[in-house]
Each structure stands twice: as C-alpha cells, then as structure tokens.
Design a protein that fits this description.
3% of the residues lie in helices and 47% in strands. By secondary structure, it is mainly beta.
Length: 343
C-alpha cells in the first residue's frame, strides 16, 4: 500500500495557495499551508468503501475559513488567551491585538491566521509526510514588534494507514530569550457516523483529574479537583455536556503509541474510536464542544492558558523560555481504531 503526496491549487476566502494531499488507498489527509498549515481533513476508508472524516471541517470553509473552527489548527507562540493582550518580558512590554470573542484578550497566537512555508514532503510504502515552518521574521515580518525574540515552529504531519502524527520543533534563532507555548485545536468526530450525527451519543474518555479555575476564559491560578459533570476518567456518553474548559494532571489510560501516552479518546462502541496520544511535554488538555455539536475539540497544550502571567505570579503554568540557539521538540499522535472496541 503506497503513500503519495500530490498538490492542487485551492481557494479559502480571499486566499489562494497549494494544498498538499497525503494519501493511500485506505487513508488521506489535506494540509493547507496558506491557512496556518492546518490539516483541514483526515479521512479513513469506511467498511462500505466511503471516506469517513476523523476531523470536522466546517461546510462553509471555502467562503468563510475561520482559522480555529475546522481541522487541526496550530496555536503558536501561545495557545488560547493571553490576558488583555499584554506581555512583559525581558524588560520590554508587548501589546497584541485583542481578538478573542470578547475583544478583551489576545487568542491563539499568530500561526493559525497566517501562511507557512513548506520545507519538505514525500511518500513511501508505509507513510507520507509534509513539513512546514512558521517564523515571525520570515512569514510575518510586520508582526515582529508584537513578540520578543526570533523563534520558529517546524511541524511535520505524517500519515499512516491508521494514524496522523504531528512532530513539532521550536527553535530560537535570535540572540535573546524566546518565550512560547504550543497547542493544537483538533475537532474530532467518529468517521463511521453520518455527517449530520451529533457527538452527544459518542463515548468520551479524558484522563484529566484537575480543572484550572477560570474567569472570563483566563485562569485565576487555582487548580480544582475535577467536578463530576466534567469527570470522564471513566468513559461515558458525552450527552449534553458543554465544554470550554482547561484541564491538568492528565493521566493516561491503555496502551502507549511510540512512547506517547493515550490521554483521551472519542468512541462509538460499535464502530471504533479515535485515540489521542501526547508526549509528556504536552501537559494540559482543553475540551471544547462547538455549538453545532458535530465534533469534540480535544486539544493538547504544552502550557496553561495565560501561562505567561501565571509564571509572573510564581504559578507553574508550563510557560517555556528558550535560550539563544535553544530547541524544544515534542509529538502528538491520533489513531483511528476501527471495529467494536472496549476501553
């Protein structure tokens, strides 16, 4: 079963660029470098021969490509909210656009809204991959006054018959420290389910034991035992649970995948499940249910929301600072397990 990489020209909103398709007879994925290097679609072959979507894509993507509402958005150099869009670092103050829904905070960094450069791609007998990079000084030079240092994020999507793996490397190219956090915002669904099916009937497992208390979507600094309505450490149907929550102390369940912990899954007991695996460097997990309820966002983060300000207060939120020449590397992997499954 050979894997190939092909490209085509596509348009999303007011942008046009090349889309990279990684494909075999049983799996395929689309990566859109010019819209944030988003893996917009990941599909597997269903038993009836049709293609099933593991990632949700908004039906109006072509005309309204909201950067963080479809596929696998990449959030860098900070995930989720930065309170009041303010960052004080290394003796300087930075002020970012207030672009969350309340217009009170900055949200999700720069990488999901801007084009990336493709560095490499290729196919082989067992997998196909594409590698892209986002670096402020090269890809958003007008934005360099908004963030300290000169860091890059290099990302590789690798597709196999049942897995989509995401390898990330952050590098500090400058002579000053580079602060950052990294997160992903994938929208998962059960590919064998009809597209109109709501997620309420699917089983969810999340290994999170602690919830960060938040005010207006920003952590207060308190970590609380997870309340019963959000406790999915024993898999159960999602039901009407509405999530937009940040969790920590995420404990794995079941087998690891290439050394990555399985921290969550979304399951239909009769047809299969999507497993979410992440490296130890990914320490927080966000769960989010969009209003259409046709998917569940299960989001690995290397840090808490607003981790920069938590650090200023002496609270460990996972904020990282790379020294000049420093690097950081970590991976996540998502796996589709077809057929009747047990926890």
């Amino acid at each position: 079963m050979a894997f190939t990489v092909t490209t085509r020209t596509a348009t999303a909103g007011d942008r046009t660029g090349e889309v990279y398709e990684l494909a075999s007879d049983s799996a395929r994925a689309e990566v859109w470098p010019f819209t944030g290097f988003n893996c917009l679609r990941w599909q597997v072959r269903n038993p009836d021969g049709s293609w099933g979507n593991v990632l949700f894509t908004a039906p109006d993507w072509a005309t309204n490509p909201v950067p963080t509402r479809s596929g696998h958005p990449v959030l860098f150099p900070f995930p989720n909210r930065l309170r009041a869009g303010e960052l004080d670092f290394n003796g300087k103050s930075y002020r970012l656009p207030l672009n969350d829904s309340t217009k009170a905070n900055a949200i999700h960094g720069f990488s999901p809204r801007n084009p990336w450069r493709v560095l490499d791609s290729g196919g082989g007998p067992d997998s196909a991959f594409v590698t892209g990079q986002f670096r402020m000084s090269a890809d958003l030079p007008d934005g360099t006054p908004l963030w300290p240092g000169d860091g890059s994020l290099t990302l590789t999507y690798r597709l196999t018959a049942d897995t989509l793996r995401v390898d990330a490397t952050v590098r500090n190219h400058g002579g000053d420290p580079f602060p950052f956090g990294l997160g992903y915002h994938p929208y998962f669904r059960v590919p064998t389910a009809p597209e109109a099916t709501l997620a309420d009937g699917w089983d969810l497992f999340s290994g999170a034991a602690v919830e960060w208390e938040t005010d207006g979507g920003v952590p207060t600094g308190k970590r609380l035992s997870i309340p019963p309505q959000y406790d999915f450490r024993t898999p159960r149907p999602l039901g009407g649970t509405a999530f937009d929550n940040l969790f920590a102390d995420v404990q794995p369940k079941g087998p690891a995948l290439d050394g990555l912990r399985r921290v969550a899954f979304l399951r239909d007991a009769n047809s299969g499940q999507v497993d979410i695996h992440m490296a130890d460097e990914f320490r927080e997990l966000v769960l989010f249910t969009p209003v259409h309820r046709k998917a569940v966002a299960i989001e690995p983060y290397t840090c808490a929301t607003d981790a920069a300000h938590l650090t200023e207060r002496g609270i460990d939120g996972g904020w990282r600072v790379l020294p000049p020449g420093g690097t950081f590397a970590a991976a996540v992997a998502y796996r589709w397990v077809a057929g009747s499954v047990t926890p």
